[in-house]
Amino acid sequence: MIQTIPTKPFDGQQPGTSGLRKKVKIFQQPHYAENFIQSIFNALDGFAGQTLVVGGDGRFFNREVIQTAIGMAAANGFGRVLVGQGGLLSTPAASNIIRRNKAYGGIILSASHNPGGPDGDFGIKYNAGNGGPAPEKITDVIFARTTTISSYKIASGQSVDLGKTGVSSIGGMTVEVVDPIVDYAALMQQLFDFDAIRDLFKSGFRMRFDAMCAITGPYGKGILEGMLGAPAGTVMNGTPLPDFGGHHPDPNPVHAKELYDLMMSESAPDFGAASDGDGDRNLIIGRNQFVTPSDSLAMLAANAHLAPGYARGLAGIARSMPTSAAADRVAEKLGIKCYETPTGWKYFGNLLDAGLVTICGEESAGTGSDHVREKDGLWAVLLWLNILARRRQSVESIVREHWRDYGRNHYSRHDYEEVDAEAAGNLMKSLRGQMETLPDKHGIKMVDDFAYDDPVDGSRSEAQGIRLLFEDGSRIVYRLSGTGTAGATLRVYIEKFQPDSNLHGVETQAALADLIDLSRNIAEIQRRTGRDLPTVIT
Length: 538
Ligand code: G16
Fold this sequence. Notes:
The protein is α/β, with parallel strands linked by helices. The chain folds into three domains: 2-178, Alpha-D-Glucose-1,6-Bisphosphate, Chain A, domain 3 (3-Layer(aba) Sandwich), CATH 3.40.120; 184-406, Alpha-D-Glucose-1,6-Bisphosphate, subunit A, domain 3 (Alpha-D-Glucose-1,6-Bisphosphate, Chain A, domain 3, 3-Layer(aba) Sandwich); 408-537, Alpha-D-phosphohexomutase, C-terminal domain (TATA-Binding Protein, 2-Layer Sandwich). It contains 18 helices and 26 strands. The strands form six sheets. A seven-stranded mixed beta sheet has the order 2-6-5-3-4-9-8, with helices on both faces. Strand 23 and strand 24 (475-480) form a beta hairpin. It starts with a strand and ends with a strand. The site of 1,6-di-O-phosphono-alpha-D-glucopyranose (G16) has 17 residues, from loops.
C-alpha cells in the first residue's frame, strides 16, 4: 500500500563532502532517514519507470534503511530497484552497477571510514547516472528540499527478502536482488593481468589484505583468494560486521595497526593492504615500507601502463588540492596534464566523464580511475599487484627508484579531531584574515583560499582550504573536514619537496619539523583549540 506520511523538516540535513553523515542515533529518529531520501527524490526529475541502485556497507541500521529506500523508490515511481544481496554493495561496486545497467542513479548507505555500531555513524548519499557522487548543484537542491519537506511517500507493509538473489515486486516496482561481487570482479579481470598476478602468488609471493570487518571482506576473498590463488588467510578481518568488530575502519597506520606492525616486523609478507568501511579507500604497505596515498597515486600513474586496462597510457591525472604534488611530477614526465581539484571525489566526475583524466587520487587514501566514478580500494590493491607481478621487485625498491627518478615529496597530515566547532571556525577565520600579511614572512610566497573553476561545466567552488605556498615549493594547507559527525576536525597538510636523494631516507616528521612548528604557530592551534598535539598523524 502506498502511503503519504506527513512530516516536518529536521535541522542540519546538509550533505557534507560525501552525503549526509550523522550519528546512528540521529538517523534512528522517526522520519529522519525518510525525510532525507524523499528530499533526494524531490530534487530529481524524470525518473518515473527508471532503475535505482540501492546498497550499503552493511553497518548497523543498513538493513532497515535499505527496506525504507526500496519502499520509497516504489512509492515515488521508480520502475526497478537493483539491490545487493544482504543489502550489501561496496561503493565502487555500486558505481559499477549504476553504470553497467544505465540506472538513473543510486542510493548508497555508508558513513565510509567512520566507526559503526549503535553508537557509531550512519550515512546516505546519492550517486548520479554516471555512477559518481552527486555534484554540488544537486546536493544544494537536496539540502534545500530538506528544509521545506512536508510529507514523504512509501510503499509500506512489505519487505524484500535480501537473503537470496532473485526478482520480486513491491508496490508495482520490480526489485532485483543481485550478487554484489560478480560484476565488479569481471570488471577487475578486464583491467588487470590476472594471469601474471596468479603467477606471482604461485612463485611464493605473500600478502595480507585487512578488510577491517567491513564490506571488502567478501570481495577480497572472492578475488584474491578465489580468482587469483592467494592462500586462504590472505584476507584478514574478512567477515563484514555491523559494528566492524569494534574497528575504526579507516585504513591508515593508526587504525590498521595490526597490519602495519606486521609489515614492519621480521615476519612481514611481501605486501600489505587494507580498505575501509565501504571499500573505496586503500592503504598500501610494503615490507618495511609504508606508501603514502599521495606517493601511491604518483607511483600507480607512473606504472599504470603495465596493466592491460591502461596499456594505451593515461589521458591525464587529477588530484585533490591537499594531495602532494608527487603526481604532478609524473604527469610532467608523461607529458600529460595534472588537474588540482577541491577535496571530494565528486570533483573528479566531470574530468573523467569528459575523458580529460584517467587516474585520480586523494591524500585521504582514495585512488581510482575512469573504470567507475568512485575511488576504489581493491582496484588500487590490484593495480599494485599487477605492477609487482610485472616488475618483480619489492615495494620498497619500487618506491626508492621512484624517489630517485622524480624526487621525494615529504608529506604528512595532522588531524585535530572533535575540536570545538566554533573554535575551529574562528581559527579558519583568523587564517583568512592573515592572507595579506603572511607573504614574505617565513619564506611564504603566497597565501590563498583555494577556489576551483571546473574546466568542463564552468562552475566555481570557493573557500576550499587555506594554502600557504613557500618559495621552495613547500606547502601548508588548512581545512575543516566535511565528513566528521562530532565537533569539527581540523586537518593540516604539510609538504616539502626533497630533490636530493641523500636526504630521501630522513624520517618524514623530522624532515617536516620546521614546517610543522610553523603550522601550529601561524594558526595558534594550541591557544584556539586547547590541543598541544594532533589526534592522528598520517
Ligand atoms: C570523502 C570523500 C573523499 C574526500 C574525503 C575527505 O571520503 O568521498 O573524496 O577526500 O571525504 O574527507 P574530509 O572532508 O574528512 O577531509 P569518504 O571515504 O569518507 O567517502
